[in-house]
C-alpha cells in the first residue's frame, strides 16, 4: 500500500490555521494512506492565536496528523503594518521548512513503510512557499479560505489589469458595475476588497492571483450545489481544477478544546439558549476582528430594544490605540459602553456576551438569525446550520461575500453591504438603528423566503458531505491525485 505525506502551511492568523487544521483532519479521516504535517509560522498575529496553537500542541491530534511550530523569528516580531511582513516572514521561514521536510524525507527513505512526500497544500496567502515544493519536485495545491466566486473575481481582476491595462485603483468610489464570471449579477466595483484600491496592496493581490494560476489545483471550502455557478465558471479548462470539499465547520465543543474560563462561559451561553424557543434568537457576532465605536454600539442596542426579538450579542471592545492594528478584547463591564439601563430593560429577552463559540451557537436550534461580518467561514456556518445572515461586512472580501449572499444567491438579507471598517482611521460610517431593525425583522420573520432557502441549502450541504455527495466525491478525486504523485 502506498502511503503519502502531505505538508500543509497556513499563514499565521487564526482563521487560516484553523482552516488548514480542518483540511488535515479531513484528509486523514477520509483515507488511512494519508499522513499530514502542519507547519505553523511564528510569530502569529495576535494572542488568541498563540493560545490556539498552544492548545493544538497540547491536545491529542488524530492519528497521522502532526503540528510543527516553527521557531519564532525575532526579525519578524515588529511592524505587521509593513505591507511586506507576510512575504518576509515566508522568505525567512523557507529554509526551516526545507530543513524539516528534508529530514522527514531522509527518514522515510530509510523505512519503506513510512509515507512518501506527495505534495504541499498552501494557504492562498502562503504560496510564496511554492519554491520549497518545487525544490522537492512535488506538486503544490492551494487551499482557499474564500469562496469559489471570490476566486473568480481574483482571476477576473488580474486579467483586467494584466491583459487590458485597467487601472483597478480607480474603481474606488466609482459607480462601475463589473461582470465578474462566477457571479450571476453585475458587481458594484466599490464592493471589491479595499486592498484593490491601494496601489501598494493591489500589487500583492495581483501577485497572489498570478501565483494561484500556477497551482496544481485549488481546494475550496464550499460545495457544488451552493456555488454551482462559480464552480462551473472556474472549471473552464483555463484555470487550475477546483475541488469543492466543504462545508467544513469547526465545533469548539464537547468542551474539550476550551480553557476553563471559556468552558464556564460556554456552559452559561448554552444553558441560556436551551431556555429559548426554537428559532427565536437573533445572534450578533462580527468575527475575531469585529468591534464598533461607542456611537455604533448604541445604535445596535437601540435596534435590539426596538425590535423586541430575543438576542444573543457578542460585543467586543475595540483596540484602545488608534492607528494600531490590534484585535478586540472583552469588556470588563458592558455598562461602560451600553446605553443606561439597557441590560435591565432587556434582561428577559437578551444576553450580551464577549467571546462567543460561534459554531456551537449557530448549531443550537434556538438561533433563528445571524448578524455577521460575512467572513467566508461564517457564511458557511450560516448555510451549514440553516441560519440566515443579516450582512454587515467589515473588511477584506466580506463586502463581496455579502453581495454574493444577498443579491446573487438570495440566502441573506442586507444590513449594509458597502460598510467597511477603517482600522487605521476614525472615519467610521454609522449604520442607523432603523436599518438594523429592518434587517433583523426580515431574517427573523417566521417562514420568510430567505429562511426557507437557507434551511434547504443546509439540508443539501449535509448530503454533499456524505458518501456519494458532491464534496465527498470531490475529496476522493483529490486524494487519488495526491497518491498518484508518489512513484
Ligand atoms: C491609477 O489611478 C490613480 C488615480 O487616478 C493614479 O493616482 C495612479 O497613478 C494610476 N496608476 C497607474 C499605474 O497608472
UniProtKB/TrEMBL annotation:
- Pathway(s) it belongs to: Pigment biosynthesis; anthocyanin biosynthesis
Q: Does the keyword Transmembrane helix apply?
A: no
The alphabetical list of record keywords is: Glycosyltransferase, Transferase
Which reactions appear under catalytic activity for this entry?
an anthocyanidin + UDP-alpha-D-glucose + H(+) = an anthocyanidin 3-O-beta-D-glucoside + UDP
What's the EC number here?
A: 2.4.1.115
The first-level EC class reads transferase
GO MF term (any one): anthocyanidin 3-O-glucosyltransferase activity
- What highest taxon heads this organism's lineage? Eukaryota
> InterPro entries given for it?
UDP-glycosyltransf_plant (IPR050481), UDP_glucos_trans (IPR002213)
* Any Pfam family: UDPGT
PANTHER family to which the protein is assigned, alphabetical: GLYCOSYLTRANSFERASE
Its family?
A: Belongs to the UDP-glycosyltransferase family.
Protein name, entry field: anthocyanidin 3-O-glucosyltransferase
Amino acid at each position: 500500500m502506498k502511503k503519502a505525506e502531505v505538508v500543509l502551511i497556513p499563514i499565521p492568523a487564526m482563521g487560516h490555521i484553523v482552516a488548514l487544521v480542518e483540511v488535515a483532519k479531513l484528509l486523514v479521516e477520509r483515507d488511512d494512506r494519508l499522513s499530514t504535517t502542519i507547519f505553523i509560522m511564528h510569530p502569529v498575529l495576535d494572542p488568541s492565536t498563540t493560545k490556539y496553537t498552544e492548545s493544538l500542541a497540547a491536545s491529542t491530534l488524530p492519528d497521522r496528523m502532526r503540528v510543527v511550530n516553527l521557531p519564532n523569528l525575532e526579525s519578524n516580531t515588529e511592524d505587521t503594518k509593513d505591507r511586506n511582513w507576510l512575504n518576509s516572514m515566508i522568505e525567512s521561514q523557507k529554509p526551516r521548512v526545507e530543513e524539516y521536510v528534508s529530514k522527514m524525507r531522509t527518514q522515510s527513505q530509510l523505512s519503506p513503510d513510512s509515507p512518501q512526500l506527495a505534495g504541499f497544500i498552501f494557504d492562498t496567502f502562503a504560496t510564496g512557499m511554492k519554491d520549497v515544493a518545487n525544490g522537492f519536485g512535488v506538486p503544490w495545491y492551494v487551499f482557499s479560505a474564500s469562496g469559489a466566486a471570490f476566486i473568480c473575481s481574483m482571476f477576473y481582476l488580474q486579467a483586467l489589469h494584466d491583459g487590458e491595462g485597467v487601472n483597478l485603483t480607480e474603481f474606488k468610489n466609482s459607480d462601475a458595475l463589473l461582470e465578474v464570471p462566477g457571479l450571476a449579477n453585475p458587481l458594484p466595483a466599490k464592493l471589491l476588497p479595499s486592498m484593490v484600491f491601494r496601489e501598494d496592496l493591489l500589487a500583492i493581490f495581483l501577485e497572489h492571483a498570478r501565483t494561484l494560476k500556477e497551482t496544481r489545483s485549488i481546494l475550496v471550502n464550499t460545495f457544488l450545489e451552493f456555488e454551482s455557478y462559480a464552480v462551473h465558471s472556474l472549471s473552464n479548462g483555463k484555470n487550475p481544477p477546483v475541488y469543492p470539499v466543504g462545508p467544513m465547520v469547526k465545533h469548539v465543543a464537547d468542551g474539550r478544546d476550551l480553557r476553563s474560563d471559556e468552558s464556564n462561559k460556554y456552559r452559561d451561553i448554552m444553558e441560556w439558549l436551551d431556555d429559548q424557543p426554537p428559532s427565536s434568537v437573533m445572534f450578533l457576532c462580527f468575527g475575531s476582528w469585529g468591534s464598533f465605536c461607542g456611537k455604533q454600539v448604541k445604535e445596535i442596542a437601540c435596534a435590539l430594544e426596538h425590535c423586541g426579538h430575543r438576542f444573543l450579542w457578542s460585543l467586543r471592545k475595540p483596540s484602545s490605540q488608534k492607528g494600531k492594528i490590534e484585535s478586540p478584547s472583552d469588556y470588563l463591564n458592558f455598562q461602560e459602553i451600553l446605553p443606561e439601563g439597557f441590560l435591565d430593560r432587556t434582561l428577559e429577552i437578551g444576553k450580551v456576551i464577549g467571546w462567543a463559540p460561534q459554531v456551537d451557537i449557530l448549531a443550537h436550534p434556538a438561533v433563528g438569525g445571524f448578524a455577521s461580518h460575512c467572513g467566508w467561514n461564517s457564511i458557511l456556518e450560516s448555510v451549514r446550520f440553516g441560519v440566515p445572515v443579516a450582512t454587515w461586512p467589515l473588511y477584506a472580501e466580506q463586502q463581496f461575500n455579502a453581495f454574493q449572499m444577498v443579491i446573487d444567491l438570495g440566502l441573506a438579507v442586507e444590513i449594509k453591504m458597502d460598510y467597511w471598517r477603517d482600522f487605521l482611521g476614525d472615519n467610521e460610517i454609522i449604520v442607523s438603528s432603523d436599518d438594523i431593525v429592518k434587517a433583523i425583522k426580515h431574517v427573523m420573520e417566521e417562514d420568510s423566503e430567505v429562511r426557507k432557502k437557507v434551511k434547504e441549502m443546509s439540508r443539501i450541504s449535509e448530503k454533499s458531505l456524505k458518501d456519494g455527495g458532491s464534496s465527498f466525491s470531490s475529496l476522493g478525486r483529490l486524494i487519488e491525485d495526491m497518491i498518484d504523485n508518489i512513484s
